[in-house]
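A note from the maintainers: we've had questions about how concatenated examples are separated. There is no special marker in the raw files; a new sequence line simply starts the next protein. For clarity in this README we add a label.
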Amino acid sequence: MAASHGSYNLDDIAVDTAGASYGAITYVSDWYGTTPQSVGVYRCPLSGQDCVYVGSPNSDSYGASRLSPSLVAGATDSFHLVWADARYRNADIYYRSGAWGDEMINDDICSSPQQAKPSLAVDAAGNAYALWEDQRHGDAGIYFAYRPAGGSWDAPIRLQDAGVQADRFSPAIAVDSAGNAFAVWTDMRNGEADIYFCLLYTSRCV
């Protein structure tokens, strides 16, 4: 893929059950000077044919940037995507599944500092698990949300140990074949950057 007026950046890659690869791309156009970043998803067939554009967030973003996409491929010709979207000034976390419309995951539109750096996992049943940085309490925290297949996102919860106040950032999430979700992040509770892990069970760490 070649950008004729701007630049592409590959943020994430995934492979569907048919062996086709998908790339989540951020694009910055220089057609009329500096413009906001946009996100697109491209499918590259196993046959080696050219990659084709298959979807992106809705176009009604009011000229705002979209950043940090996280991508999961499912069955043939399907994908799940999360990203940080600044259409309401401070960035919020959005989700899209294939041709379906955008869904906001976090629940505090226009009322808090921004959310950033989402990570997405989807199990074999189509249940989705999202993790992201969130500054609504003044520090950098990690929030988690769950979406059952075909349903709506549950209310986000903060991954916070009782009595511990420290910045947390750079989250990542994965899910196994049994639907167990595993979260990792960088944590400053000891005064330096350490890596923490938890098993997410019914929207909490165990």
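[label: protein 2]
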Amino acid sequence: MTAERTYRCDALDKKGPIETVHFILSQNPHIQMVNFWNYCYVPLMTNESNSRSFWETRTNILCRPTVDFVPQDERDKFQTGIGSKVFLSSGETAQIPMMDFQIAKSNENLELLRKRLNHVGIESGWILETGESYHFYGNTLIHTQEEWMDFIGKCLLASIVNSRDNIQQIADSRYIGHSLRRGCCVLRLTSHGDKTYSPKVVARI
């Protein structure tokens, strides 16, 4: 079997989500299993009845540069995303901080996003650009449901209130709604269907 892959923090620039996940795992050796999801992206959907959740071991993930642990027939039909829930060697569960944003891509907005995340107390992680906006992965695990809810709330509060009728949303509120319903966040790792842009690291917080 191929040896586990590791990445230096400064080597993640322009890397994709798989490499980011590998780095998080290498920095958190007590993570033993990671949650993944196969799903079909449907704009404005209100349920996730067409999704499937499964678990993979850290060794199986770190020994592979892609998501080839997913059967080929499923990769041909579904997006594969990483779920934020992880199992630890202690037998406890934790969550990787993750978020999907809706602020439009631009150099100005990328700097604004970094400042807004810092403003609400999110100070460590990576921003990946997507086709239209950004994803976030944190390196410091969240250990309780209360802490995860606090993280979700902080991301909502990163919005900029110019006036009662003029609020600039930063985080994707529908994404947060789905995350609250399923009890974890999910960010895509693959490019399939309408989502053809491969996310890549563009900033570190």
